[in-house]
Design a protein that fits this description.
Rossmann fold, alpha/beta, 2 domains, about 300 residues
Length: about 300
């Protein structure tokens, strides 16, 4: 059933969350047929109407039974139990391509299904999903982390390309580090945005999120292109400015101070390891970074 490049396949999307509904629409655009999906929430039903019109919402077992390609787009915490549950009820069919979208797992999580002779592939799209048609426009900029046996790699890579992305091979043993990296990069970004927006609002600065959008997007682009080591080191070298920021945050936003201090310490550690911090300011900086809250005087 599986060739070097997937032919038109009947696809089941489990479930119609923000990721599954978008990837299902991308597979449809590539010529595959989404024959079933699952989901019970009002949000899932809205996404199906928008992104997968006409696709029936079915119980998971029934949806899997209709498919040649099963796309498991469920939260990390639910994936292992879902695979075990479908195995116990003999839902799998020999030759089915079973793809999951979790960043955390490779194909080992699909091991219970191997007795049914399925073809296991881990395929994580490295982007944030809103569950709207806008995501389809962003997929061409996304990289898909592909983990599978060498014999199945052409299928995994072809699926990534058909959905508009670019495949990147991640070995099974590297999957935990991959997951930690993407979580570290994006998992707490909303907290930083919220904290900065609240500080601006408290300072009676209007349009705080629009202000932050340009600032953060340009900073992110610079960091991704160049690393911006010079900018980070320059910020650390101005110990007086860092002290003032920490004192202000201690007074009006202690939770933000903790985040700011943690990032400053991480930046300092990387700069010191690279030999980029000048000795005269180093002692003063280290004293500041290790001082308890409210005790940051020179």
């Amino acid at each position: 059933m599986a060739s070097q490049r997937p032919a038109r396949l009947d696809v089941a999307v489990i479930s119609a969350g923000r990721v599954g509904s978008v990837l299902g629409a991308a597979l449809t655009a590539a010529g595959h047929r989404v024959v079933a999906t699952s989901g019970v929430s009002d949000a899932s039903q809205r996404r199906v109407r928008t992104l997968l019109p006409g696709v029936p919402l079915l119980p998971v077992e029934e949806a899997v039974a209709r498919a040649e390609l099963v796309l498991l787009a469920v939260p990390d915490a639910a994936l292992a139990d879902l695979v075990v549950g479908l195995t116990r009820v003999a839902a799998w069919q020999a030759g089915q391509i079973v793809v999951h979208t979790s960043p955390r797992y490779g194909t080992q999580v699909l091991e219970p299904a191997l007795a049914a002779h399925v073809l296991p592939i881990a395929l994580h799209p490295a982007m944030h999903f809103s569950g709207t048609p806008t995501d389809l426009e962003r997929l061409p900029d996304a990289r898909f982390a592909v983990t599978c046996a060498a014999a199945l790699r052409p299928i995994g890579e072809a699926l990534a390309i058909e959905m508009g992305g670019e495949p990147v091979c991640v070995t099974e043993s590297a999957r935990p580090r991959y997951a930690a990296a993407v979580s570290h990069a994006a998992g707490h970004l909303s907290v930083v945005v919220d904290q900065a927006a609240e500080l601006l609002a408290d300072a009676d600065v209007g349009g705080s999120r629009r202000l932050l959008a340009t600032l953060m997007l340009t900073a992110l682009e610079s960091a991704l292109r160049e690393g911006d080591d010079g900018g980070r080191v320059a910020a650390l070298s101005d110990v007086s400015a860092l002290r003032a920021d920490l004192e202000t945050l201690h007074a009006c936003a202690p939770d933000s101070r903790a985040v700011h201090l943690a990032m400053a310490r991480a930046t300092a550690a990387r700069a010191m390891a690279a030999g980029r911090l000048a000795a005269p300011a180093l002692d003063e900086l280290l004293d500041l970074l290790t001082a308890p809250p409210g005790h940051s005087a020179p």
